[in-house]
Write a structure and sequence with these properties.
Number of strands: 11
Shape: globular
Distance between the termini: 19 Å
Structural class: mainly beta
Mean pLDDT: 88
Strand content: 35-45%
Order of helices and strands: EEEEEEEEEEE
Largest sheet: 3 strands, antiparallel
Strand order of the largest sheet: 1-2-3
Number of helices: 0
Amino acid sequence: MSTVDSNSQLILVTTNGTNTSNATIQTFEKDGNGDWQPVLNTTGYVGKNGLASNKVEDDKKTPIGKYTIVTAFGTKGNPGTKLPFRNITDDDVWIDDSDSSLYNTWKFKSETQGQSTSAENMNIRGLLFKHLLKI
């Protein structure tokens, strides 16, 4: 935990190996003495094919690493987070064309015409994107 000493909150996602999608999600907050205190311990999921230290597009794996959360988003509205929140609309896409200059960015479909050959529709009703965090 020494690499996150300057933080006051932490989300730790662990798995039993790199080839499983099942994960344990734990959250921690620093108390008044600067000691980490557990807040939540629950089950969750990473990529369908597990984890990867060398991420490749469409491998269905979650990249291993330490990340900062920059915003929350989803189809069900802000659940109460203090993070900036963005509602997903029918016009939202995630560019997954690795040859595009827009690769790995969240864009409005109406503004990306001809700039990529592949983009994932973000508004998948009732399936994946109810509440998420963007790193």
